[in-house]
Amino acid sequence: MVKNKGKRKWYLLTAAVLIVASSFYLMLRRKTVSNVPPPDITVEFRTQRFDQALWENRLELNTAADSFKAVFSDFLPFYAEQLVAVSRANDPDLYRNLSAFLQDPYIDTVYRDVLARYPDFKAIDANFDAAFRFYKAAFPNAPVYNIITLVSGFKYKIALIDSAVLVGLDLYMGPDYTYYPMVDFMTLYLMRRLSPEHIVPDAMQLILEDLLPVQSNTTQLLHRMLEQGKVMYALEQILPNTPDSLIYGYSSTQMDWVVQNERNIWAYMLNRDILFTSDLGELTRFMNDGPFTNGLPEESPARLGPFIGARIIASFMERNKTLPMPELFAVTDYERLFKEAAYKPK
C-alpha cells in the first residue's frame, strides 16, 4: 500500500449562500462547464476507514484480526512512525506503543468524536466519485487515488502518498469543535475551513498540484501566481457544483469581496509594479495564508495570488478553447502564457 518511491506530499493546511453578484459571476464563469459528471467515464477507487479499523483493534493490536493486519500491514507501521510519531516502524514494541497512544484520554476522546461525526463516508464518497470522473475527463492519463481516513492528533489534514490520499478526519470536525482552540497552530481563519465540505476540494487540489511539472523553484510572483492559478482553474472545472468559496477557502463574504474587487486588485498589483518581483515579502503577502491580505481592507482574503492567477489562466483558456488540460499544465513559459492571456478584468 505504501511504496518507497519517495513521492509523498504532506500538507497540513494550517486549513452561507453567496449574494447575487457572486452567484451571477459563478454562472457566467462556468457556463460552459457541465455540472453532470461524464456518463461514459467510470472510476475505480476505494475508501478505507483506517480510523475505524484501528479503533476497533486498539486494545489488542498484537493479536489483532488477521484481516486487519492483512489490509493495513504496510500502513500501520507507516502511520505509527511517520504520521503520529509514536514508534519506529521496526520497533518490536510498535504495537504496544501504538496501543498506548490510542488509549491516551485525549486521543481516545478525539477518536470517539470522529467516529460519531463520521459513522459512514457514503456522501463524501459520492462527491469523490463525481470529482474523479470530471478529473479523468480532463486528465485521462492521470492516476485516481484511493482514500484512507485516519486520526493523527491534529497533525495532518491532507497528505498524498503513492497509492492514496490520506484524510485526517480530526481536522474536519467543523469550526466549532471543542478541541480546536487548544491546538497550538489553530487560528480562527483556519478553523473556518475545518468542515466536512472542504474534504473533497482539499484532496482534489492536492492531487492537481502533484500533476504540475517540477519547477526550478521560481521565486517570481507572476510565475507563482500562474502556476497555482492552473491548479485553481482546473479545480473549478472538476468541481462545478462546489461553491467558489469552498474551492478557494474563502468565507462567502470574502468571496463576494474578491469578485467585486477583481479589477481593483489587479490595478493595485500593476500600480505597485510587483508582478515580476521576487521580494519575499510580496510573495508571502499574495501567496501565503492568513486572515486577510496585508495592505488591503480587512474584508479581503489572503492568497489573492492564486485567485488572480486562475483568472489569468481562464482568460488564456478562453483564447485556447481546444487546449487539453494536460497541455495547459505542461506550459512553463509563463511570460508567453501571460501575454497570450491578455487579461483585462472588467
Description:
By secondary structure, the protein is mainly alpha-helical. The protein has 2 domains: 1-15 and 35-200, no CATH class; 221-341, no CATH class. Helix content is 48%, strand content 5%. The chain has helices spanning 20-29, 50-56, 66-71, 75-83, 94-102, 105-117, 122-138, 188-191, 199-209, 221-238, 244-248, 252-260, 262-272, 280-287, 304-318, 325-330, 334-341, and strands at 9-11, 47-49, 146-150, 158-160, 164-168. Strands 1-4-5-3-2 form a 5-stranded mixed β-sheet. The termini are far apart.
Give a count of the beta strands, DSSP E runs of length 2 or more: 5
Following the backbone from N to C, one meets helices and strands in this order, namely: EHEHHHHHHEEEHHHHHHHHHH
- What is the topology, as strand order, of the major beta sheet? 1-4-5-3-2
Number of domains: 2
Helix coverage percent of residues? Answer: 40-55%
Distance between the ends:
49 Å
What best-fitting shape do the alpha-carbon axes yield? globular
Could you describe the largest sheet, including whether it forms a barrel?
A: 5 strands, mixed
The total count of helices amounts to 17
Radius of gyration: 21 Å
- Proportion in β-strands: 5-15%
| Low-pLDDT segments, ≥5 res | 1-7, 10-28
Mean pLDDT: 88
Alpha-beta content class: mainly alpha
